[in-house]
Amino acid sequence: MLTIAGKIFLLLLIGITVVAFSRRAKFLIALLKLGKAEDRSDQVGKRLKFALGQVLPQRCVLKHVAKGDFAGIGHMLLFYGFSLFVISYGFHIAEGFYEKLSPALFGRTFNNLFFLLLDIAGTIVITSIVWAAIRRYVIRPPRLKLSMEAGIILIVVFSLMVLNFLMEGFRLLSEETPFTAWAFVGMALANLFLKMGLQDKAFVLSQFFWWAHMTVILGFGIYILYSKHLHILASHFNLFFHSTSPKGSLQQITDMEEAESFGISKITEFSWKHLLDLYACTECGRCTDNCPASNSGKRLKPEEVIQNLKKHLFASANHLLAEKAGEKQEETEGQAMIGEVVTEEEIWDCTNCMACMEICPVAIEHVNKIDDMRRYLVLMESKFPSALQTAFRNMENNSNPWGIGAHTRADWAKDLGIKTLTEDPNVEYLFYVGCAGSFDDRGKKVSVAFANILKTAGVSFGILGSEEGCCGDSAMRGGNEYLYQIIAQANIETMNGYGVKKIITTCPHGYNIIKKDYPQFGGKYEVYHHTEFIADLIDQDKIKLKKPLEGLFTYHDSCFLGRYNDIYDQPRKILQAIPGMKLTEMERNHARSFCCGAGGARMWMEEDVGERINDMRTDQAIATKADTIAVGCPFCLTMLTDGIKDRKREETMTSLDIAEIVWKAMDM
Amino acid sequence: MNIVACVKQVPDTEAQIKVKPDGSGIDESGIKWVMNPYDEYGVEEALRLKEKFGGEVTVVSLGPARVMETTRTALAMGSDKGIHICDPALDGADAYTTAAALAAAIAGIPHDIIFCGQRAIDDDSGQVGPILAELLGIPQLTVVTKADLDVDGKTIKAIRPIEGAQLLIEGTLPCVVTAQKGLNEPRYASLPGIMKAKKKPVDTKDAAALGVTVAVKAKVARFIPPPARAAGKIVGGDDPATKAAELARLLREEAKVI
Amino acid sequence: MAKGVWIVTEQRDGVLRKISFELASTARKLADQLGEEVCAILLGSGIEGIAGELSKYGVDKVYVADNAALEPYTTDAHAMAAAKVVKENDPSILLLGASIQGKDLSGRLVGKLATGMAADCTDVKIADSKLLATRPMYAGKCYGEIVFSSTPQMASLRPNVFPIVENPKAGTVVKFDPALDPSQLKTKVLEVQKDTSGKVDLTEANFIVSGGRGMKGPEGYQIIEGLADVIGATVGASRAAVDAGWRPLSDQVGQTGKVVSPNLYIACGISGAIQHLAGMSSSKYIVAVNKDPEAPIFAKADYGVVDDLFKIIPELTEACKKLLAE
């Protein structure tokens, strides 16, 4: 219990903290409110469950521990340890005002256990901090940058622990009946101090360290909001307000006829949730560490994008707030968000592979931000890589990015006796072939193989023939929402016209966009990727894989199949159903798979900076010594086939679509 | 500066061209209509001049109602207004008649420089630009890959590639410039541009309104499908020298390209 | 009554161009069917001496305007001169070359003569004593037969299509005054930039020789450049060759490089992935030279040679050199 003066002084300290904290909090919330409205208040229960499910068991940082991301363990230890300390600070303050409000209030056992745990936690936290410091300053993994803020936090937390132990030790030494005997570190220190002959000064010193401790912790409370450690608070909210729309879908632009601006070019055009993302970022660098663009030496580093946007938000905060308040502002030449804060190069480097969002512990939506900036560049400024213009025009004129005559779309099926929906609209499934499957010689082979499988299995299916259009994925991901909407609406009109209910695609891009984005325009179908469908056919015994296939296989997870749609098992299950199958995994597989480089409309752009992403992925496949790279995506197929040629492995290595492999194994 | 860009709507280069069974024309079903790519270079150059010198770009087009879409495309790129010459009597008009109608429309508006494509990719004739220039009594600079207007806006210098050389030519304004590939990279219309284009004024006129009498002087009497393109030939021979000689001969005598 | 088959010849630096003889030979054939004369228009400065050459190919009369203002070629001067002599003589048929110069002049003449013309014809004949011209349209996806209802019936002939046939005539030379009005000469040639490097930009090139992964290295391009020099082609490359650093990015043909549509595209050691085909499949003629008979490029090629390009290309260069020298 404190003296009156002590109480007043503590109240003063708390008062200062509360004022400083709430001023900053008010400012931060005001900044968020500069963002556009976006409803993220739906499904409160689900959101809460998700956020708690990420935070309490520390799943957010532990999800990739099995893949070697051990830093998550350190975070977990710090998190639990520090949380316990937060409770102890509550007791400290309460005790300061009224003696009885100590852990002893809950009984002796609780009191002892509490201090035992606290000492264990303190020890763990100190160990974790030492580990973190060694990692950050000695080992220095590339994803972590040397920052002053990171150093400060380590010092602060470290000193909190040390101060706590010192305070505890002196307090134990000063009390006639020590408040607990279970605080083993405190007891050890008390003994040490006793030997050092500090018993006389024990009370004063315990008081001194108590105050020092309080000052540091309250100061830290304020500091959190002023530093990157804002994430300690913001991440919880960010997890709560995470996106509940289908994974990887982009928000459609509505009101195209009337809107005056499209896409995003100013920080305030982001929704408040996207601004909250900026607060939530911890600079952990996992996104950059997993980004294929960063890894291949491109300009884009997702973490920098988020951090630079955050700095930009703070730098222009006063101006923007004053502007919102209606105060006349001098026209200041602030930084242009696109071009200066985030360069066009960074924006176009992104393959939309979602590795960043998958790994991000705090549910930051990087890809959506980048694609929204692309939309601005394309729709408002018409500024984009010129090769993309060719692809856009081709999609406009011939509904495929290569610009091959639209009337030849069904030529691949000419001699296969496949009916179009005009000929028979009563088929059960529409095989939506897609552009690669229709026009690319390599892709056509996949279409033929898959059609043969369907025929053998007796599946009732048809194609749209020359009525089929491009799915629009490359237009949408390339920022050309206008073109995408025209394409999507035309397809939906055609498909709904035939009463299509179930669709199978061989391309994950078509699969993803039809499944997740077409519903926004009234195109609601049951969509299957052909690997899902083939896996079912095998399960139902409708096809028989009888021919053993030689050699070692490895399966490449396409981003739009894996991370976007969580289809990891079916392709592997199919392969394993083949007699004699020897399947190995690349180092990066499943959710941590490495992009082939073609997503996000990158297929249609030049890649002349750094290493080629497809070659890097090919190298990863070569490292497994596999003879065949199995894929489930025509873009990946093209990119890996090129990679194999670039690496001069044509003689010993090949890449095949799952459908081709299955058709081979069916040996018809 | 008053700039005019003439645009024609043509089937996309990849479109399938089917001759009607009676040879009276081509079957237009399923054709994707686009702006003639050479005209697009013209529109782009017109817009660049406007950006540099100020003024206005008027798009002049001729053809059936569907041509409005192409006119709107040029407006979406940034042109200011349009004249659409629409008259069934002008369907299938020859180069002279087409140019006469365009000349009548353009003569009625101020014009300092007129851009046309060096040819249209449907009839491939490349005459309208020069005839137009003659009918307006102004010089022509055809098949141009670079055009520089003097700061005074009175003379223009242009690069015109010819066989094995290129010419730097100079002409006085007003004039007709026909655009060749390489002149520029046409812009991609922005979405606000597309939306605004819907509201820009387009004046639709028929032949009578322009005072043009339609008298076609050359017409396509019959459309003929091309001989089926022979499947690719693999040039045979006992040794590389024979194969090469045979290939050279085929290029010369059969393909007639060298 | 319009009478006579007329041609507008073309010369450069005092040498008649090959198209002039193709025009003369074709005109002769038509004139013989009509029983009319062949007259040629020859414009330039200091060119009177070459008029006689035309009579060797069936020209009866050569109308020559020898005037400093007619050299070098300008649309205004040549159109004025040609229109004057045509109007005075009222021919029934007027043929020009569909060369670059001919294309520039013919349209202007159509305007001056207020008549109809068939451009870039691949065949001309007489039917019912009238001209019937056949010409490719829609980039050769169909042909049109053109008939005329005004005179002169004008047609421009695609170069290198019509045979040159010797048919010597007496050939009189008629000099005429082009009556050029200097105030009407509104264009002038400031400079002729002789282009000996053959470096026409890919997108404008009529001929392209392109090399891919099969070139094996930057040195391989020497033989490609050799062939390109001989046929006046521009050198292109596939993405693989550009990525390998053998050629600059500006040489790249394909989806993400340049989209080209030359008359002749020779693909050497290029397998023909769709990204490459998207950039060149609208070429009029495609030649593929590749060791691998399974290469998809052969499916698109008009002429394919399955052989080592390092053997074929030098031989082809020699063969072309010989043919072009003829």
Characterization of the model:
The complex is a heterotrimer of chains A (668), B (258) and C (326). With 668 residues, chain A is mainly alpha-helical. Chain A has helices at residues 4-33, 44-55, 59-62, 71-97, 108-139, 148-174, 184-195, 202-226, 231-240, 272-280, 286-290, 292-295, 302-315, 317-324, 344-349, 355-359, 366-381, 386-398, 434-439, 441-456, 473-477, 481-497, 508-516, 530-539, 569-576, 613-622, 634-646, 658-666; strands at 429-432, 461-462, 502-505, 526-529, 552-555, 582-584, 628-631, 654-657. Chain A has 4 domains: 4-25 and 44-240, no CATH class; 267-317 and 335-382, Fumarate Reductase Iron-sulfur Protein, Chain B, domain 2, CATH 1.10.1060; 387-539, Rossmann fold (3-Layer(aba) Sandwich); 552-666, Rossmann fold (3-Layer(aba) Sandwich), CATH 3.40.50. The radius of gyration of chain A is 30 Å and the shape is elongated. Chain A starts with a helix and ends with a helix. The mean pLDDT of chain A is 92. Chain B has 2 domains: 2-210, HUPs (Rossmann fold, 3-Layer(aba) Sandwich), CATH 3.40.50.620; 227-258. Helices cover 29% and strands 29% of the residues of chain B. In chain B, a hairpin with a 2-residue loop joins strand 11 (155-162) and strand 12. The longest helix of chain B is centred in the N-terminal third of the chain and has 17 residues, at 37-53. Chain B is globular. Chain C folds into 2 domains: 5-184, HUPs (Rossmann fold), CATH 3.40.50.620; 202-325, TPP-binding domain (Rossmann fold, 3-Layer(aba) Sandwich). In chain C, 29% of the residues lie in helices and 28% in strands. In chain C, strand 8 and strand 9 (130-137) form a beta hairpin. In chain C, helix 3 (75-89) packs across helix 4 and helix 5 (221-231) packs parallel to helix 9 (309-325). The longest helix of chain C has 17 residues, at 18-34. The mean pLDDT of chain C is 91. The interface between B and C is large, with 83 and 91 residues. Strand 16 (233-234) of chain B pairs parallel with strand 18 of chain C.
